[in-house]
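Duplicate of #3305? Posting structure anyway:
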């Protein structure tokens, strides 16, 4: 059963394109849940740009490069799913800007990558691939392939996430001592799986073997370089089954040639396939063509994971594996839906009544129960504020990015002075003036409580066509406004006024449709604004 979330434009997906060979279970699961799935592999960039226009979903592995050009051509795309770990081949910033969710399957190939890493360590210790090639060439050379035991040797593991942990557990069974470094995992956690954490400076000189299991980013590019190889034990053996470039390839070649590095196991390269063959051809290098996730089990797991993650999201159950839309994770409970609607409505009201397009927007959540909602409420307010302002429209994924580009400064905070209160306040400050709107949810209906300091007698239901105006209160005001509306062929459907008996008061009128021209009201009111929620 589809929940209300399917009605949200953010995640309405009907057609999905699979652009690489993903396990057949992926297509099957998506089709079983009513999605129209097309598989087209080996497309050029131009083919992909032409094809992707017709789809709301795109599923890739690692070969399809989902660049900003592809993303900008994909006018209907809502989600990009990567059946695998990491998202190096997807321009996540461009996707976020276009309001597209990017997902991966971080645990699908953990065991396969860990097992290949262990195979590399064993190959380096006993020269298994080189010995096999020598035999195939007709030789019987027992002296040439003298190896060394792993028992008692030290393995340094840089990156102690899922894969690093599994490598540690497996290599400990060979009697290896495992030490490691990770900037995020606490030492107490890595100690539970037998890895003593230390700084990289302490780690380099201790290790007989070093394996890297980090994402590729500025801080990890060239992590092993001329300087760090010089700090290592002479003859250290290194393994990279993570991402090409974490070990500097030119520095590795120099270390292999000088003997500072005794061997390397490489499953990944800066360019794939590698154009510079010196490393691959080196006698002490064991290389594979990026086989880390190339097992039947990993492919089935990744194909199944990405399909189920997409289905769970579309059914409003949960958001798993999203790399760029964390704000959405807390929007999957039924009680959050009216609050999202409230946020959007408050954004629309504050923009219409303040007539500001830029400035500082302060969003305050009030009351204990809304503490965890500040993130998505801020995004929802900005979605409402930016409506009509952008070609592709704002959604919860890209609202804050688009706000920044539009010169809007967004701040959110939380106030628990009255813990039992449940409300959201939005203040717009620009050009020395300030507008404030306060709303809440009553029985699943978003309502406006206050506009610029004026509290409404009856909370205003934030739906349909609304006309706000500020005028000095007088018995003639309502009949005069009703007359203007009637002259335009409109009916007054609801009315609420603020509690300001003396001086100006704010009124809100629900109307059958919006006025073609607000100037007809000008003689009767000081300020007027209209909007459709």
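Output from current build:
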């Amino acid at each position: 059963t589809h929940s209300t979330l399917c009605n949200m434009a953010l995640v309405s997906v009907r057609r999905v394109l699979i652009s690489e060979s993903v396990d057949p279970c992926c297509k099957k699961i998506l089709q079983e849940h009513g999605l129209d799935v097309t598989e087209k592999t080996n497309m050029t960039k131009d083919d992909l740009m032409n094809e992707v226009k017709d789809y709301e979903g795109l599923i890739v592995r690692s070969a399809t490069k989902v660049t900003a050009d592809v993303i900008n051509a994909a006018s209907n795309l809502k989600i990009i799913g990567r059946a695998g770990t990491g998202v190096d081949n997807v321009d996540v910033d461009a996707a976020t800007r276009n309001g597209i969710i990017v997902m991966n399957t971080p645990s699908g190939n953990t065991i396969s990558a860990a097992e290949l890493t262990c195979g590399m360590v064993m190959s380096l210790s006993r020269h298994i691939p080189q010995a096999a090639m020598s035999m195939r060439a007709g030789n019987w050379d027992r002296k040439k392939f003298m190896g060394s035991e792993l028992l008692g040797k030290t393995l340094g593991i840089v990156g102690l996430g899922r894969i690093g942990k599994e490598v540690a557990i497996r290599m400990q069974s060979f009697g290896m001592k495992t030490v490691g470094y990770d900037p995020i995992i606490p030492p107490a956690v890595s100690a539970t799986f037998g890895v003593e954490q230390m700084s990289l400076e302490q780690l380099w000189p201790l290790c007989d073997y070093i394996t890297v299991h980090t994402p590729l980013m500025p801080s990890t590019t060239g992590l092993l370089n001329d300087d760090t190889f010089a700090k290592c034990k002479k003859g250290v053996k290194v393994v990279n089954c993570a991402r090409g470039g974490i070990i500097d390839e030119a520095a590795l070649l120099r270390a292999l040639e000088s003997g500072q590095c005794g061997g390397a196991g490489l499953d990944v390269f800066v360019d794939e396939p590698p154009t510079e063959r010196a490393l691959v051809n080196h006698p002490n290098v064991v290389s594979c063509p990026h086989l880390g996730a190339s097992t039947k089990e990993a492919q089935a797991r990744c194909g199944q994971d990405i399909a189920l993650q997409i289905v769970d999201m579309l059914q409003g159950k949960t958001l798993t594996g999203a790399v760029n839309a964390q704000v959405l994770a807390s929007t999957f409970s039924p009680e959050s839906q009216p609050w999202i609607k409230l946020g959007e409505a408050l954004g629309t009201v504050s923009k219409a009544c303040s007539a500001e397009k830029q400035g500082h927007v302060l969003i305050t959540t009030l009351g204990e129960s809304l503490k965890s909602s500040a993130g998505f409420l801020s995004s929802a307010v900005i979605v409402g504020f930016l409506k009509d302002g952008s070609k592709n429209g704002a959604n919860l994924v890209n609202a804050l990015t688009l706000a920044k580009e539009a010169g809007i400064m967004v701040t959110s905070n939380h106030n628990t002075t009255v813990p039992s209160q449940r409300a959201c306040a939005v203040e717009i400050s620009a050009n020395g003036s300030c507008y404030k709107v306060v709303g809440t949810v009553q029985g699943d209906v978003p309502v406006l409580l206050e506009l610029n300091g004026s509290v409404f007698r009856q909370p205003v239901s934030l739906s349909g066509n609304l006309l706000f105006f500020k005028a000095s209160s007088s018995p003639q005001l309502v009949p005069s406004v009703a007359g203007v509306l009637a002259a335009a062929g409109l009916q007054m459907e609801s009315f609420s006024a603020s509690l300001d008996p003396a001086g100006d008061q704010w009124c809100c009128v629900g109307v059958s449709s919006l006025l073609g021209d607000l100037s007809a009201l000008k003689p009767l009111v000081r300020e007027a604004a209209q909007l459709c929620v």
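Confirmed duplicate; merging threads. The chain has 17 helices and 22 strands. The longest strand covers residues 433-442.
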